[in-house]
Every structure is written in C-alpha cells, then in structure tokens.
Amino acid sequence: MNKAIISTDKAPAAIGTYNQAVKVGTAVYLSGQIPLVPETMEVISQDFEEQTHQVFKNLIAVCEAAGGELQDMVKVNIFLTDLSHFAKVNEIMAQYFRTPYPARAAIGVKELPKAVQIEIDGIMELPSTN
C-alpha cells in the first residue's frame, strides 16, 4: 500500500495524532474538519451558519491540496451537536455541491472538539489519470 500524506496551510493544522488527509491510490480519506480559521486556529464564531461555511472552506482546501475538488467527494459524514440544524446543513451543502451529490450520513453527537456545532469528514475519489 502506497500512502501519501496530504497537508496544507490553507486548512487548520492537525491538532492531534492524525493528518488532514491520506491518499491511497485514487482514494483520499479526509479527516474531520471543524470550523477553525486556519490562520488563527480559532473557531470562526458561535453562529451555526458561519461554522458550517468555514467547515466547507476547510474541506475545499484539503481537497485541492490532494489534487481534487470538493465535488470529487463521494461520501461525507456530518456530525451535529443539534440535529435541528439538519435543514440548514442541506441548504448550505447545496451551495457547495452540485449533482450528483455524494453519499452522506448526518449524525447527532453529544459534543465535538472545541465545543463546535459541526464537523465533517469524508472520502474523495480523484479522477483517473489514465
């Protein structure tokens, strides 16, 4: 297995024993992104919509560092501390993805790192270069 570590300063640095993403073949496994501003490593705000947009910006940066784009994601997992935000997540997600949408799970959790309200991870499949 040939693993390539993906890292960019345009997304928050890893704050634990993990990498922003790992590429194996044409699959890229993205670690969870929370709404940290990369330059400050601080949570963008307590506003759910602002947090969600920042998470997508962070995901875009990691996807681009891996040689792809957000639209190449084939699976996303959305972790929410309040499932009543589900409709808002759908609305915001539609601003970042076009059809065909990736497979997705939305999971309610008790808490997330740094007391944020949302975290998203996923898998990206890079276009074949053959």
Distance between the termini: 19 Å
| Beta strands, count | 8
SSE order, one letter for each helix or strand? EEEEEHEHEE
Using only C-alpha atoms, the radius of gyration works out to 14 Å
Structural class, please? alpha+beta
Helix content: 10-25%
Number of helices in the DSSP assignment:
2
- The average pLDDT is 96
Placed side by side, the strands forming the largest sheet appear as 1-2-3-8-6-7
Stretches where pLDDT is under 50 for at least 5 consecutive residues are: none
Largest sheet: 6 strands, mixed
- C-alpha geometry: globular
Percent strand? 25-35%
Tell me what you see in this structure:
The protein is an alpha+beta fold. Helix content is 22%, strand content 32%. The protein has two helices and eight strands. The protein has a six-stranded mixed β-sheet with strand order 1-2-3-8-6-7, with helices on one face. A two-stranded antiparallel sheet has the order 4-5. Helix 1 (48-65) runs parallel beside helix 2 (86-96). It is globular, with a radius of gyration of 14 Å. The model has no long low-confidence stretch (mean pLDDT 96).
